[in-house]
Amino acid sequence: MKFSKHIAQLTLDCVIFGFHHKKLKLILSKLKLAKEIYALPGGFILQEEDIEDAAKRILFERTGIQDLYLEEFGTFGRANRISDEDFQLFSGIAGDLYPDVEPPINENNQKMRIVSIGYYALVDFEKVIPQKIDLDESCDWYDIKELPNMIFDHQEMAHKGLQVLRENLDKKLLFNNLLPETFTMKNVQELYETVYDKPFPANNFQKKMLDLQILERLDKKYTGAKSKAPYLYRLKPRT
Amino acid sequence: MKFSKHIAQLTLDCVIFGFHHKKLKLILSKLKLAKEIYALPGGFILQEEDIEDAAKRILFERTGIQDLYLEEFGTFGRANRISDEDFQLFSGIAGDLYPDVEPPINENNQKMRIVSIGYYALVDFEKVIPQKIDLDESCDWYDIKELPNMIFDHQEMAHKGLQVLRENLDKKLLFNNLLPETFTMKNVQELYETVYDKPFPANNFQKKMLDLQILERLDKKYTGAKSKAPYLYRLKPRT
DNA sequence: CCAAAAGTGTTCTGACTACACCCATGA
DNA sequence: TCATGGGTGTAGTCAGAACACTTTTGG
Lengths: 239, 239
Prior knowledge:
Two copies of one chain form a homodimer. Chain A is about 30% helix and about 30% strand. The first copy, chain A, is of the alpha+beta class. The first copy, chain A, folds into two domains: about 5-170, Nucleoside Triphosphate Pyrophosphohydrolase, CATH 3.90.79.10; about 180-235, Winged helix-like DNA-binding domain superfamily/Winged helix DNA-binding domain (Arc Repressor Mutant, subunit A, Orthogonal Bundle), CATH 1.10.10.10. The model of chain A has no long low-confidence stretch (mean pLDDT about 90). The first copy, chain A, binds a DNA duplex through helix 6.
């Protein structure tokens, strides 16, 4: 066999961000290993598959959502990105899921590097129950501020993903799965404050959002709170 | 042999931009093929090599410059990024340069996709004579506005590289090899006008550049032209 | 009427634009 | 002294930030 069903030394890992009520989380798998260690959802890429389609496939496997907004944020290819310890831990189980892929060990029993492409996506974590796959002991949402011990350079990938998410969040809002159908300006503000981890003054924030021309104002929302009822908004249908 | 000396289905291609006197060029190889077709300088990645080091190695091979500023700008992995025609053209010669890498054909004689990582770099093209390698009939600078027929999706890669170069050119200037040791403000302005392919008003441009606090004003330059002598500048030593 | 939260208006600043103007230089 | 190109100054516009203020709501 010259070529396996999957590309041998290239994987794809996804930083799936979930937002809800001032919390920013991401999906991690707890791996079925002796040591407690976590990984970004990822996998190998099929030979006939566009890389972006592979990312969509992995995202669908884990979230059940078909058409998610996603973006590539970088390639991770340091020669030593897989430590010896992680390699030994992981190589035992990877073959179960990808029997076609040769374990990354050369004829001298040295580990070989696997390059990973990073993608991120955005969802509302109240709407998505992370699905585990065979390699996972469990799969769940973890707060970005309290990330557990992660395998390979996955922690670095998660941070790079967040950094790219923060660039032009305005444009990304257009596609999102982060907010419900209708929402208040406060909801949007909390989303921004959570992603950027800093406060935004409400009046300036509102002006800026409205100036973007992407929100449509609807009726007011009467919650029964003893305060003024906020307007509801929805994303303008894209032209 | 389970693994070759190079990673099998992953390559790296470099968009090496060269600037001089209102011209923006990039290095292309004319391949030793029946058809006249050009390629970005690129190559496979060694198993033990950081990807960024592989990019530096390729850049050094082609330009003779060791420590070039470079940046990754994306991954190119469409399943059909290599057309049947390009595949047939190229597969004949690739084996000469990389005898260790299996030709990307599966057992059913179907071509397999190779994923490529894009890097770009910046130089002054008057200072660099592009070096050809075995696969090349020639290797030279080509104007970005008059790109010849390019193999695979290399044209798309070149344009994406330019797009990323345009983002934050200010910061990239700090590292560059684009300008001589000392230069006039007009030189810098022409660089910007060439990269962005649009004019900048001279007075506002000067103010903006000086506000960046990265230029140090030196003595005037007396060229013998019958006009006021411009100041010379140099990049402030980085702290 | 009051507290709480929503929403608006006004001013200030700093970046960028456009326009007009002055200065040095060699012919 | 004049044309040429280098360099500076000022006013207008626009997005953000900071501040104070008014409005709506249910108790």
